[in-house]
Amino acid sequence: MTAPALLAALAVAALAPAVPPATADPPGSAAPPPEPAQAVRQVFAGKRFLFCHEPSYPLTAGEKRWCDLGAGNNTQACPALRDACNNDALAKQLELREPFSIHLPEVGLPVRLLLWILLGLGVGMLIFALVRHFLDRKAKEDVVATRVPDAGPDDAAAALARQVETDVQRLLERARARAAAGDFREAMGDAYAALLRRLEGAGVVRIEPHQTNGDYLRSVRGERPTIAGRMEEVVDAVEGAQFGDKDVTARGFDGVWTRVLTILAQRIGLLLLAGGLLLLTSTCGLPRDDWEHSPSGRAGVIAYLGKRGFKVHERLLSVAKINESTVDELVLLPGARLGKEEWSALARWMATGEHALVIAGGRHHLPDWVGMRIVERPATASEPVVPSDAAAKRWGPLQVRVPEGNYVECGAEDRPLLRRKHGPYAAQRRSDEEGEFENRVLVLADDFLFRNASLLLADNAVALDHLLRDGGTSIELAGDLTGLVSTNPVQSVQRGRLGPAMLQLLAFVVLLFAHKGARFGRPVHAERVERRAFAEHVRALGLHYARARAERQALAHVGQYAIERLRERFGRGASRSLSGLAEAVATRTGRPVGEVMRLLLEARDASKGVPADKGARDLETAAEITRLLAQTGGSGGHT
Amino acid sequence: MDTHEFQVTFGKIRGEVERALVGQTDLVEHALVALLARGHVLIEGAPGLGKTLLVRVLGRVLACDHRRIQFTPDLMPSDVSGGNVFNQQKGAFEFLKGPVFTQLLLADEINRAPAKTQSALLEAMQERQVTVDGVTRPLPDPFLVMATQNPIESQGTYPLPEAQLDRFMFKLSVLPPAHAVETAILRNHLAGFDAQALERLNLARVIAPAGLIEMQAYARRMRVDDGIVSYIADIVCRTRGHRSLIYGASPRASIALLHGSQVRAAARGRDFVIPDDVKALAPAVLRHRVGLQPDAEIEGVSADDCVTEILREVRVPETVAA
């Protein structure tokens, strides 16, 4: 998908529900409508129909078929089309650029529900993040405000001096001004600051008070190795002035200035190059306007009908809601998506009023109540389409020229209006004249008559006028945009023709993931907030005492910690008494009960402040108790 | 001597050392910085990572005497410093110099000796002299002590007291080499490298001890801006009030950081110190001079974490305002 097309699709997807339907020029209130040929000339005089004004206009292979029929010969209405038809090279290029679409699968209710939930969550998180960011920022501003006691709000000059300039352009201008004033040292600092601010804006460095120039340089080496060399030269010069007390001369400043500008320009150059490439890949330099005003589009047809007194709308609401419409005639173009619901609605609409339905090709399966069907036939050679005898009596002799293709298969009660050698091109069925309403279904073999280029050929414009006028002058065109309002995000993407764009976006995200890892932003350590149990503090104290060789105190704390842990592990029965605990521990570890009891008693005595016996080896006891802990499950830690 | 010459000589020494000692760039650089800043180095690392080799290669490249003392639990202070021995022929006591009387001393597994023996090095490291029986004898110049300790084994060891630790300018952690370095070491051996026969490498004697002393003196002349002095003081002072530390670094740390930064600046061809010099050396200078709170230790906080946090808190002078 090209960029303009993508933008157009995005705009359509975003604005579809709110945009009023495209309307043809209102008919003049008093003046009679111009003749068909004159109306066609007036329409294509508009500069937006570039194919009529630009000889190098590139035509697609499909559009070249109009040239074969002689559309280029109508030089009065469309002077440049003949040259465009002869422009083979460009047409070949465009053959590769026929529009394509990716059809996403229709999804069921659970998936749709899930998508809506995800969408809701996403929006909620975004709002939450924005609110939190705003609150955090406000809190930080409050803190900063309370930390500045030396300048009141009246002291504007001091406040101005405290402000940190972060704008790259202003920093560069300030550097230039200071250099002009001969203050090269400050000018160099400003130029360097401008460089850093630009790099920060590009996400290469993060300016923080604790970062050194070396830190910035290392970041640049990692992220932008191509500019690291120049940046290093700049840093050397800046640090020489800042810390080496070197004199900064005009020449020295010029060196830094040139390097800074080169780095900045390199980035701008890259951006321009990328933009240029995007533009090139988007348009291939071909002067095509938007699709609606191309030979394949319908803007000219709508404008022509408007000039001929019709009131034409492009229908955006779903055909299923046709009963709410007040138009006389509905034209179904091939792009209109019709399901059972829509066809049923159409059937009801036809049954409840004097309406006309025009089916302009594109569908091989029509409901039974239509009574006709469109048959596909391989194109061979162009052959003229002429009115049937009945139609010729009303319309006079006409000749319609459209590319070779389908025909309409109709029954005995249907009336062919236009025909060619192999069969009817357009046929209609009217409702029973004795019924309450007189309705009309007109089936065309294709939608060629509704394309801009068609108006340039023979009597096509006149024939279209006749075909539609029988059904009334208020017409709605149901095409690609009809029913664009989506019921789920997937449908929205599909109808917005954003499938390729989403895939490109996905590919970009995958590349970004491959390049940056899981986190696209700069990783930040989450603050760990942990609460330790009281026993852990006791153990920490024990370690502290052990390190200080205060053996008795170490045993007191480690012992208290160990007894508490053992009671936790052996439950209530064991916690009633020390002997019960000793028995439980002995059973688990296989040690003699007496030995375990001795250890626990020593630990308890130490924790209760009982003085050590002569020759007591408290550290060894503490180590033994720790081993006991390790044997009873979990880590006993180290002493 | 000028800055360029200093940079070139420093680079040559480093290049020669790294011909024999593959993949220990930081270790070599810090050892040289310590040597030129008149400091000492404590190396923590497993056996077999090239600590002894470094001293031997340095001795050869710098044309300095070098000795190695294997510290053991029964090592006596006189085994380090030397002592008076009765000479029966002369009928008088004679001083027999211990291994500390050298220019490059490798104190291997220093924490295996008791505090009494460890303290035999205190005067030597700080005053660069040895006093035995009231007689003070100066040590040769230059004088560098490289002590090692094994971080894994703790049984039968005597942790270095704070006073001893403070004498070391840097504490370096030597990590096992990466795969590529390991491969390079093996290739060197396949090509005939033998750590016991360094003469085969034809290592160049880049500089004589006198030149080294000149470099030491030159490095002290590197300009240090007031902002840098304040920056160093800020960093060291913050170690004293840090919530995870029992005690912070002494002024000796500030001085070590200052002189180390001067050498690093000169080694990079600058005649002035920049904040990056200070920041680069701060972990090596501070990590052994601070004591962790027990609860911080339990939480797995290391001295390096604290130093890193402090460096993130201290504002760098003359930087672009954030």
CATH architecture call of the domain at 160-283 in chain A: Up-down Bundle
Q: Within the CATH hierarchy, at the fold level, what is the topology of the largest domain in chain B?
A: Rossmann fold
* Strand arrangement in the largest pleated sheet of chain B: 2-5-8-1-9
Mean pLDDT, all residues of chain A: 76
Percent of residues in β-strands of chain B: 15-25%
* N to C succession of SSEs of chain B: HHEHEHEEEHHEEEHEHHHEHHEHH
Let me know the number of strands of chain A.
10
**Highest-level CATH class of the largest domain in chain B:** Alpha Beta
Shape annotation of chain B: globular
As residue ranges, the low-confidence spans of chain A are 1-29, 144-154, 281-286, 635-639
Largest sheet of chain A: 8 strands, mixed
In CATH, the architecture of the largest domain in chain B is 3-Layer(aba) Sandwich
Care to describe what's here?
- The complex is a heterodimer of chains A (about 650) and B (about 325).
- By secondary structure, chain A is α/β, with parallel strands linked by helices.
- In chain A, the strands form 2 sheets. In chain A, strands 1-10-2-3-9-8-7-5 form an 8-stranded mixed β-sheet.
- In chain A, α19 runs antiparallel to α20 and α20 (about 550-575) packs across α21 (about 580-590).
- Among the domains of chain A are: about 160-285, Four Helix Bundle (Hemerythrin (Met), subunit A) (Up-down Bundle); about 535-630, no CATH class.
- Chain A has 23 helices and 10 strands.
- Chain A has helices at about 5-15, 35-45, 60-70, 80-85, 90-95, 110-145, 155-160, 170-180, 185-200, 215-225, 225-240, 250-285, 300-305, 340-350, 390-395, 460-470, 490-495, 500-515, 535-545, 550-575, 580-590, 595-605, 620-630; strands spanning about 310-315, 330, 355-360, 375, 385, 405-410, 415-420, 425-430, 440-445, 475-480.
- In chain A, α14 links the parallel β2 and β3.
- The longest helix of chain A is centred in the first third of the chain and has 38 residues, at about 110-145.
- Chain A is elongated and about 135 Å long.
- Chain B is an alpha/beta fold.
- Chain B has 2 domains: about 5-75 and about 100-215, 3-Layer(aba) Sandwich (Rossmann fold), CATH 3.40.50; about 220-315, Orthogonal Bundle (Helicase, Ruva Protein, domain 3).
- Chain B is about 45% helix and about 15% strand.
- In chain B, the strands form 4 sheets. Chain B has a 5-stranded parallel β-sheet. In chain B, strands 3-4 form a two-stranded antiparallel ribbon.
- In chain B, a hairpin with a 4-residue loop joins β3 (about 80-85) and β4 (about 90-95).
- In chain B, α1 (about 5-20) packs across α2, α10 (about 225-240) crosses α11 and α10 packs parallel to α12.
- The longest helix of chain B is centred in the N-terminal third of the chain and has 18 residues, at about 5-20.
- In chain B, about 40% of the residues are buried.
- The model of chain B has no long low-confidence stretch (mean pLDDT about 90).
- Chains A and B meet through α9, α10, α11 and α19 of A and α12, α13 and α14 of B.
